[in-house]
Design goal:
By secondary structure, this protein is α/β, with parallel strands linked by helices. 37% of the residues lie in helices and 18% in strands. It folds into three domains: 73 residues, Arc Repressor Mutant, subunit A, CATH 1.10.10.10; 148 residues, ATPase, nucleotide binding domain (Nucleotidyltransferase, domain 5), CATH 3.30.420; 168 residues, ATPase, nucleotide binding domain (Nucleotidyltransferase, domain 5). The two termini are 14 Å apart.
Length: 426
């Protein structure tokens, strides 16, 4: 969030409130400041933002009507009358975050501080069942709202993460290459119609990066990369404290970095992409091959999923451990290339595979140390996500929260205007 206001604003004039856009900017800045500080007086608001006390007084009158802030008593006096303390009411509204993964659906209801209120999750074949997926999303959203003090009237906005690239300005379009059964459309605009609130949609790795930046291992780091490894592989980039999406909004397809141009064909049509070596199908296939050549207690034809592989590796099973070590080698090479290009301060590994922890992390760190071009006194920090598999759904809720604070009209009880869009930095 940008808690400042434009340098071009002339705080000394008395006519600045006449421009609705300017008024909105000032109101946004005041509201965000109160949200950040939790408790603050009008005088301190004026001092921190650089507004006259009369302007702050007028803005506070408007904000008190929304129920988002309240007067909660007297503060300490510095010699004159005791100031009235304003407090942000984090529980006044709620946010829904929806994580539509390749093999699961998670819905999270939070307050305006990002505090989880209700959680619903279910394994589901999302890739092949769009209609069933949408039904579960509606069911979970309804449940989350029905079992709390909140309902659709206090819902502020909804953020949705999808396992597909999302082009800026075309939020409902999904990749037919990545999830062909959805025929290129999510139809998540139905969430907007159902709840009459703004809906924002973005790629799951982008939102994992956003969650890491706000709440997780990337907090306090302005340049980071979040790498999500699960069914596929994606990456989200935070540069100078902002989520970077590229010219068309499609940056982050880390899984399609070519590692072996003579390797196996990828779903994207190219050969030897990182996904063909470290993605879920590649890991499971490699595991089955190794199980056929080493002592084990499994039927090689039985159905094995990524959870089985991870569990086996964490038990120390030889074949599973070797698969993870090989994956770490490929991942380390790809991360070295990424580091040489963009030089982030921190790289955070998340997604399903991150559950193996040091089994993956330590060999990746060693590989990068040996192969990265530029060595400095402060090399890139590579770590596991502190939010675990929940990073993406937290990121979806954070997206909705961040966008809500960017647009004052969404914070008014009188203007629950519907909107459906991708997260647009412009």
């Amino acid at each position: 969030m940008n808690y400042g206001i434009m340098n071009s604003i002339n705080h000394g004039t008395g006519t600045r409130r006449a421009d609705p856009k300017l008024a909105g900017t000032l109101t946004d800045s005041v509201l965000r400041l109160i949200w950040r500080e939790n408790r603050i007086s009008r005088a301190d608001i004026a001092k921190k933002i650089g507004l006259s006390r009369s302007t702050v007084t007028e803005i506070i009158k408007e904000l008190l009507l929304t129920g988002l802030i309240a007067e909660v008593g007297d503060g300490k006096s510095t010699g004159g009358r005791k100031p009235i303390v304003l407090e942000f009411q984090y529980g006044a509204r709620c946010i829904l975050g929806v994580d539509v993964g390749a093999t699961h659906i998670t819905v999270l209801l939070t307050d305006l501080q990002g505090k989880p209120l209700v959680w619903r999750e279910r394994k589901h074949n999302v890739v092949d069942d769009p209609e069933g997926t949408r039904k579960i999303i509606y069911e979970f959203c309804d449940e989350c709202l029905s079992i709390t003090e909140h309902d659709s009237t206090t819902l502020l906005s909804i953020g949705v993460a999808v396992p597909s690239p999302v082009e800026t300005g075309k939020p409902d379009l999904l990749s037919e290459i990545v999830i062909p059964a959805w025929h290129g459309k999510s139809d998540l605009n139905l969430l907007k119609d159902r709840y009459n609130v703004p809906v924002y949609i973005d790629n799951d790795a982008n939102l994992g990066a956003l969650a890491a930046f706000w709440w997780g291992a990337g907090k306090g780091t302005n340049d980071l990369v979040y790498i999500k490894i699960g069914h596929g592989i994606g990456a989200g980039y935070i540069f100078r404290g902002e989520l970077y999406r590229g010219g068309k909004g499609l940056a982050g397809e880390f899984g399609h970095m070519p590692i072996d141009i003579y390797g196996e064909e990828c779903v994207c049509g190219l050969r030897g992409c990182l996904t063909t070596l470290v993605g879920e199908h590649a890991l499971i296939n490699r595991y089955k091959v190794l199980l056929g050549t080493q002592p084990h207690g499994y039927d090689i034809d039985q159905k094995i999923n990524l959870v089985d592989l991870i569990d086996a590796a964490m038990r120390g099973e030889l074949a599973a451990t070797r698969v993870i070590q090989e994956a770490a080698d490929y991942l380390g090479v790809a991360i070295s290339g990424l580091s040489n290009i963009i030089n982030p301060d921190k790289i955070i590994i998340g997604g399903s595979l991150a559950r193996v922890g040091d089994l993956l992390l330590k060999p990746v760190q060693e590989k990068v140390k040996k192969t990265v071009l530029v060595q400095t006194e402060d090399p890139v920090v590579i770590t596991m996500s502190s939010l675990g598999p929940d990073a993406v759904v937290f990121g979806a809720a954070t997206l909705a929260l961040e966008e809500a604070f960017a647009k004052t009209s969404f914070l008014s009880n009188q203007s629950h205007n519907s909107e459906f869009s991708s997260f647009n930095p412009n």
